[in-house]
Amino acid sequence: SLHIDHRNRGMRTRLGCLSHKSDSYNDFTAILPDKPNRALKRLSTEEATRWADSFDVLLSHKYGLAAFRAFLKTEFSEENLEFWLACEDFKKTRSTAKLAAKAQRIFEEFIDVQAPREVNIDFQTRELTRRNMQEPSLSCFDQAQGKVHSLMEKDSYPRFLRSKIYTDLLSQTQRRLS
Fold first, then answer.
1. Residue 120: helix, strand or coil by DSSP?
2. Structural domain includes residue 26
3. pTM
4. Residue 117 lies in a domain
5. Number of folded domains that form the chain
6. Containing domain of residue 74, as a range?
7. How much is the average pLDDT of 127-134?
8. Cβ contact 55:97 at 8 Å
9. Is 44:173 a contact under the CB 8 Å cutoff?
10. Residues 60-66: what's their mean pLDDT?
């Protein structure tokens, strides 16, 4: 399968110039879990403001997650969030029969070198995860997931809070109150 490497830096900066157009409130409505206008009517300023309290508050809110995902798309780094969500889902796996195959899928998609949506983790974490794959368990991605979580929290999350997507969304909820 032919794989286009989005991590190519030059490509990313060129695309970066284009991405600002999509970094807007309209882009956000496109990826909302249900009807955007209904969703926005239900989203209170108070809720949207709470996303700034902590990264985990943002991740635990359906619309917060959607807005953050829209923001990451503009930065071409949504694979970090997709991996984190895949791990959250993986940890709920009840069937031991499915565990190994699910783990393998996540590993091939996000962890392996040259994975189609390779996440940004250090060599040690990648190797530890590779070793964990020999006997996959519900915790085999814990370290990698933790690294990706703190990377998003330190790096993308503060930028998200300053982004046009978030500020537009907040002013949208506030305008509705006036």
1. coil
2. no
3. 0.77
4. yes
5. 1
6. 43-175
7. 97
8. no
9. yes
10. 93
